[in-house]
Amino acid sequence: MQLLIEKKREALRAGLLSLGEQVAAGLHHSLEALRHQDSNLARRIVTEDALINRERRFLEQQALVVLASHQPAGRDLRLIGASLEMIAELERIADHAADVARILLKAPALPLPQEPAKRIGLMGDIALAMFTRVMAVYAENGDADQEFGAFGHVGYHGRWRSARIGTAG
Using a CB cutoff of 8 Å and minimum separation of 24, what contacts does 15-18 make? Predict the structure, then answer.
């Protein structure tokens, strides 16, 4: 029974990592569509968001089946609960990327103001780098507190502050 739960847990983890890769790609494409005001890429992002939504539902169903049929406890229960939360958050992040694409599609012929678009792109790059690193820590079963200790957090904070005030980071 425990081996089966471990296999299900690993399948859920692998699915979550795959979803994370899809979300990272969506974020990257969203930033590229914004920078180049690329309507074709924006449409692709919206289409891919529908696939991410389906993947979310599939992963949630997997987690609920494990909960209902195997009634995990302790570490396994906490992991499945955290996975459900992460799945929802990943899908929400993908929705934000798709929202940027939808905004671009509403007025494709209108150029975006250059300076705000540049700052948004820089903040997006920082957010994408943070997201990518968090997913890498998750993939490595790492400790996020250790990974984003004083230096890591300050580094991102400094870059974020530079993006906000418009200075080089």
Answer: 15/55, 15/58, 15/59, 15/62, 16/59, 16/83, 16/86, 16/87, 16/90, 16/138, 17/135, 17/138, 17/139, 18/55
